[in-house]
Amino acid sequence: MMKNRYLVVISPKVPVNNFSVLQEIHSFGFKRINNVEIKKIYSLSGNINKDKITFITESLLADTVSESYKIVNIKDVKCLSTQILVNIWYKPQVLDVEAMYVLKGIKYLGIKDDLEVHSGKQIVFYPKIDKKSIRYIIEKIFMNSLIQYYEIV
Length: 153
What we know:
Blueprint: E1 4-12, H1 19-27, E2 35-46, H2 50-61, E3 67-73, E4 85-90, H3 97-108, E5 115-126, H4 131-142, E6 148-152
Antiparallel strand pairs: 1-2, 1-3, 2-5, 4-5, 4-6
């Protein structure tokens, strides 16, 4: 059985003012950063195709009036952006309550496929900065290392 893994990236259609986050980043000495995007992400894997993921996203995950979304096969994520993306996820031993409710919602939509769902957030910094600086900022501001881990894409 083929197991596909997709990443759904959800962004607000109207730019969000992250002024307070930028102030905090600047307080650590990273004054060069002039914008930060924080996006909601979901990982869905199993014997499922992109059409079903689109249906799930439009029915359950994204408010298509105020949010836009991208669906990519996880193996293509590195090709997504010229920026460095940071995905923050819950550790495997931590209960991902949002993912549990998404899975329940998927079943209510009538999709009976055996799926695995994870929820998280994606951070993008502008302009592009080095990985050492990204690690420092992520660990200080954006994640709780007791329950989350991050991956730099």
